[in-house]
Predict the 3D structure of the following.
Amino acid sequence: MRDLAIVVLAAGKGTRMGNALPKVLHPLAGAPLLAHVLHTARALQPTRLVVVVGHEAARVEAAVRRLDPEAAVVVQEPQRGTGDAVQVALPALPDVGTLLVLYGDTPLLRPSTLERLLAEHRQQQAAVTLLAIRPEDPGAYGRIRTDGAGRPVEIVEARHAPPELLASDLCNSGVMALELELVRRLLPPLAPHPEKGEVYLTDLVARAVAAGAVTALVEAPAEEGLGANDQRELAALEARWQTRRREELLAAGVVMPAPDTVHLALDTTIAPGAVVEPYVVFGPGVVVEEGARVRSFSHLEGARVAAGAEVGPFARLRPGTVVAAGARVGNFVELKNAHLGPGAKANHLAYLGDAEVGAGANIGAGTITCNYDGVAKHRTEIGAGAFIGSDTALVAPVRVGAGAIVGAGSVITADVPDEALAVARGRQCVREGMAPVLRERFRRRQKARERKGEQDRRDERA
Ligand code: UD1
Ligand code: CA
């Protein structure tokens, strides 16, 4: 197999998104658009992956470094069109082999489609193979003109296309496989289009044909070529992405009775047989293992829910959370950077932050780890089998030993040894028969207030 290099074009501006964030960094399924494309690109195991950045170059470059540290970044400045972008990338690419061109803002492209494109490219021994789409509204897409045998002979941008070509719905998705040898020979001399001052990568097709090279095309579902030009289109992409991913999870055996109400992230991992109840939101970095159940109205990010564990309804798991096998997190419980040991329970109304909870421990309703002193975060450790009574404040750093019991309503500021009982609250005081006395006192005071009120009103009138 020939070497595969991939270039991702991500230098464009995306003015219509309506905010300062570069278009390719807008989030889809909890990850930047660019992350989706890099993910797809990596799935093809290229020997070289190059990202062309330009608009907000430093910011996009930083994102690339974070998302795919192996990828090379080249800066295109100024941005003189797609052809210019590939030219700028050429020094960072191998001399020969196949080059796959992708756009940083088309997140629905599937690796399997690209594999089909590359297979056809090789089989036809083509120098240029286009990924064509037939969108419902071909609008501004470049149109592909073909010969009698269905081979591409040129791409004409919509603004330059004659009416008969504009009537065609065979459109350029932008994705193409190119032989680097041909690109090096034919691309650099490409001249900018006088009207827009841009160098069109698409002009390469007619040049390749003129040079006697073989061209080919593969059709893909129109969805895969979709990008987002504004927030409305981005939301539409999100909806399509969610639908697709839910279907994959259902097909794999995840139990999701109301899939339309479950919001997933690019990297959400849910094991077959796990249950996700209606109305659950997954932020980035969540793993749900087999036999686990995520109940309704829960919000999870950066968390692992281990086998047989149960979370929610109305649970919030924040980054750094592990709910170990068979553990339970109930309603209105928030965990952050917290490890709940096997079989441990925090069933109601609690906050566990920067905490380590041992196996089988029981965290009573209203328990709070006071992990922040206004300056720094501190850890709370709760030993295996410990019992924390309701409405306990654990002032970190603090450790409650294994098997210890903490009385309800305690404010725990010092370590509690294993198997100890700690009660830290005001002592209860009982005075027999005092209630009627108190009530009589309160009634007398109330009467006195009423009498004073009447007197004041008389004085005012006088
Ligand atoms: C391009 C194609 C068109 C195709 C359409 C599909 C050309 C000339 N036209 O048009 O045939 O139907 O995509 O969406 O190629 N970019 C750079 N540097 C630049 C310019 C663009 O990196 O100087 C990047 C953009 O960030 C974007 C991609 O290239 O990711 C496409 O650029 P865009 O301006 O959106 O091209 P279209 O006009 O949509
Ligand atoms: Ca575009």
Observations:
- The first strand starts at residue 4 and ends at 10.
